[in-house]
Inverse folding.
């Protein structure tokens, strides 16, 4: 089943207590949400934890989805909320021991990352990576990204513009050779 | 590297299949299954907005009924016909904005900061235009009383609004708190206009209008605290 075309209908059925619709939604959306988390330079296990937490949150607040509204930004808005919470919690938890763990943590995260996409987005800031992942990777519209990130379309455009500028600068001749040479595909 | 090439690289990277562990999918299904029951979607935005405006109006009117309608009694027809409709329009904007803050992925037309700025500037401009008594008497003593009275009504209006929308889900509680505070602040300003007969420009411009940013700041702080507490309890 294609996720995009029936997402809104499936959400309506999910709200009515249809577990089959919930299962289809889980199967459709989980890979996308996981890729969204992985695009933030997270380890695979962290992304799995967040995916599970996101689904619990989605289930708790499923009544806030409004029929007729696009469902994709609704999913991403909740995933984003869970990720920001996780990020802030982890900052607080690791504040005291960060210096000691920094090296091993970075190495471990790098080895578990999903690959090319994360490598490509690595030079970008959190906000820019998030917007590029939604817009260019997930194929959401500017309006949908604006809804998911609770900001204006203008602000999304600005982030995309800055992200592209940074990508052009950082990828440079080295990346040009690599991606033009088809290594990415 | 051209933008088209970056686009292509991103698209190619995105095509890499993302496989989620089937055991994880099963775990998610299993955690949801026992809790699957029909839920009632939220009411329409306009209805929730109307309820929020009614709460704010009720708090203002109840406060004025308790302390006296001296302000509105002293106003002329022009002042009455401009001040209260303007506050009503701003309250409607704040109420709809608050409803949107409590629904994930709502279209945000006016940011919380923008709403506060608009409300404060519009109120200041209106008061500056209407009230032109430039005498200054008992500036601090009378002003502090009005500020506290306004805040004492703004806080319950904001809290009641938050309680009314507790079924919603604020992805950013600090922003939602700021909007609830702005709405409460408008209720506080409304009460002061109904009650306070001191029409000195300096008094109204400083002390009455100050209720708005202070109430919004309190609301934002409360929202931030709620989120911090939720995070602490999750750990």
């Amino acid at each position: 089943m294609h996720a995009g075309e029936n997402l809104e209908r499936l959400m309506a059925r999910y709200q009515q207590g249809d577990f089959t619709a919930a299962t289809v939604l889980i199967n459709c959306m989980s890979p996308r949400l996981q890729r969204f988390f992985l695009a933030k330079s997270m380890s695979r296990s962290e992304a799995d934890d967040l995916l599970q937490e996101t689904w619990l949150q989605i289930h708790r607040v499923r009544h806030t989805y409004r029929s007729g509204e696009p469902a994709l930004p609704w999913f991403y808005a909740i995933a984003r909320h869970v990720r920001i919470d996780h990020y802030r919690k982890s900052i607080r938890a690791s504040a005291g021991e960060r210096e000691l763990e920094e090296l091993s943590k970075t190495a471990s995260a790098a080895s578990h990352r999903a690959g090319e996409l994360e490598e490509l987005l690595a030079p970008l800031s959190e906000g820019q990576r998030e917007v590029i992942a939604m817009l260019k990777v997930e194929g959401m519209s500017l309006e949908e990204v604006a809804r998911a990130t609770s900001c204006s379309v203008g602000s999304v455009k600005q982030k995309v513009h800055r992200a592209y500028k940074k990508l052009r600068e950082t990828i440079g001749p080295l990346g040009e050779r690599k991606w033009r040479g088809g290594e990415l595909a | 590297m051209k933008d088209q090439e970056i686009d292509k690289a991103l698209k190619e990277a995105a095509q890499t299949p993302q496989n989620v562990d089937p055991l994880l999918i099963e775990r998610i299904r299993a955690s949801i299954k026992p809790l699957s029951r029909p839920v009632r979607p939220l009411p329409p935005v306009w209805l929730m907005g109307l309820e929020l405006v009614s709460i704010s109006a009720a708090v203002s009117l109840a406060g004025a009924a308790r302390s006296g309608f001296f302000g509105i009694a002293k106003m002329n027809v022009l002042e009455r016909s401009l001040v209260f409709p303007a506050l009503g329009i701003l309250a409607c904007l704040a109420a709809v904005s608050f409803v949107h803050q409590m629904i994930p992925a709502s279209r945000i037309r006016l940011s919380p900061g923008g709403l506060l700025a608009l409300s404060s500037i519009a109120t200041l401009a209106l008061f500056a235009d209407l009230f032109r008594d430039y005498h200054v008497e008992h500036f601090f003593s009378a002003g502090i009383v009005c500020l506290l009275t306004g805040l004492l009504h703004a806080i319950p209006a904001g809290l009641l609004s938050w309680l009314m929308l507790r079924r919603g889900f604020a992805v950013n509680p600090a922003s939602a708190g700021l909007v609830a505070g702005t709405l409460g602040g408008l209720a506080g300003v409304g009460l002061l206009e109904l009650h306070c007969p001191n029409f000195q420009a300096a008094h109204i411009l400083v002390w009455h209008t100050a209720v708005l940013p202070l109430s919004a700041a309190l609301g934002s702080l409360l929202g931030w605290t709620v989120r911090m507490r939720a995070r602490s309890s999750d750990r």
In short: Chain A touches chain B through 69 residues (CB under 8 Å). DSSP finds nine helices and no strands in chain A.
